[in-house]
Amino acid sequence: MASQNAAQTTWSNSKLPPEERARRIVAKMTIEEKALQMVHNAPALPRLGIQAYNWWNEGLHGVARAGLATVFPQAIGMAAAFNPRLMLRVAEIISDEARAKYNAALRINNRGQYFGLTCWAPNINIFRDPRWGRGQETYGEDPYLTAQLGKAFVHGLQGEDPRYLKVAATAKHYAVHSGPESLRHSFDAVVSPRDLRETYLRAFRTLVQEAGVEAVMGAYNRTNGEPCSGSPTLLQKILRDEWGFKGHVVSDCWAIKDFHAGHKATSGPLESAALAVKSGCDLNCGSLFHELTKAVHDGLLTETDLDRALVRLFTTRFKLGMFDAPTKGPWAHLKPSLVNCAAHRAIALRMAQESLVLLKNNGILPLRKDVRGLFVTGPTAMNQMALLGNYNGFSKQMTTILEGIISHVSAGTQVNWLPGVELTGELPPKAKALQYHGGQPEIGAIIACVGYTAELEGEEGAVAGSGDGDRHQYGLPGQQLALLKELKKTGRPLIVVVTGGSPIDLSWAQEHADAILFAWYPGEEGGNAVADALFGDYNPGGRLPVTFPKSYSQLPPFENYAMRGRSYRFMEEEPLYRFGYGLSYTSFRYRKIALGQTFIPADTPVTVKVEVTNTGNCAGDEVAQLYVRDAKSSVPVPRHHLEGLARFHLKPGQTRLLSFTLTPEALTSYDDQGKPFVEPGDFVITIGGGQPDDPAAGAVTTTLRVKG
User: Fold this and answer.
1) Does the predicted TM-score (pTM) go above 0.85?
2) Is 252 assigned a catalytic role?
């Protein structure tokens, strides 16, 4: 009997490789037990020493839906910082807090949802269309920027321990997924092999091959006819066979049901469950995999199919240390006092500051703190929802924009406040009240806080103020534009602070306002960050991670997934604001761009150097952006594409020498079948503070020649 017990617990030996431990424990399960362990809410198996585990945890911009956490800016705002190093630090904090909350939850036997160690983030879908309500969860429209930020986020979550994962990251939603939300359960995203490889898969490949992401989540939709969470092409041919992915795949929530109910790809639940597992989906967020026992009995699957999936799942659990003593391991010491501590809030402030994008400034900013009076108005000035975004946690110290402003001005400054209009209300602004508060002699400026909250854009079924979560209206909601027009009539300088997770039509404000500051959903320290920028304690240096078109009419139909006409890489029309655009209170000059070699073989990296000088009167951050353009390609290619970035701080008069390494991937084109190649010929390399065609970018250019 003792030898039998010893054989059954051989997986407890922490010296064995995680995959071997997983094989041993899976071998002891019945078919019924195996099926139960393949759903997100996996029950305990006491006879094998397996505790209940809920795989569903969120950490998009802080530990989410689990009470107290540090709330960082929404993902799209963090992308605007263009700072992978800071993104790494943010993710380290998220994983610290996830571990601390997990440790605390175990002590009270809370094994429920949102307290696990499998974090379903980052969202690295391409924000190809501003109508998509979940674009706020992404890092924008550019594959390179998305890949670099996603890679940093995964490294921060998973840690660098050679034996254990700190938290398991999940790259989602794989793949070709970005709306419409109302169609996601039945929609087929048809995409060419070139667009698939060049745009939609690049970040996923980077996170698999360079970041070692532990998990991948399948999307709801079909891609080229195959349901993504049951796609042999995506899950087996590309993800595992081509890229060498070794981790586990999880479906989006209840996406397996869509196989038969929405996509009509299968006849019913049994076939749907079998298709998912055979195609490489290991874990069902939902309950349909309860059908797997019958699927095996009916011959639709073999027990070996289940074993393959379960070994992957339990390998992850062993990597996370779930079967080792809870008092041991590199993160057992993390305490609840760490959650939302002062050091973490300081990084939330820094990220909020770096995310701010100054879209316009005629010289009114920065304001003096001893200004005699200010009038603050608008529906987002006192609105905590404007700080949060979706998939959020909660902080005990949320600072609204009005609170930030009040805390920054002098004690002798008069600050008046009125909401002006409701967030979405149809009642026009009360002109007399606005004229009274905004027109008083001591009022030095009006600060109008307008825009969106996650009540108006987000995920299907989770947005109170939108039928499906998507953005069908491009302008400011309700009567907010009317509010701005009434404020302009006062004759006082008008500063517009905008919250939101996606592009907004700000054409009137661009023409008539004195300054525009885009704040995204800036997190718990958002009010302080905005006030720091308004009053000059911080010089804004963020850049737009997504193009702001002038109107939706500049875009292809929402349902069209071809990249032609979309994003800065393929859009021919002049937008309202370019990708990579953002102003500063100072100025920068680029000069002396130089290549390590000017004539290289196709498989050879090359260095590119450039000097940047702060030519203004105050210190500030600059975001250098390196773009590549194929001067004469035999296949369709982007107009130009980002392939290098660096955010850095310079004092007035200070110069910095930057060095970038261009890999062959940066020069890669794709043929009609999606096959990559580097074409011989000339490539134009441009480095500046924005895109090559942005007059304000101050870009410098050189030419690289690739040998035939």
Assistant:
1) yes
2) yes
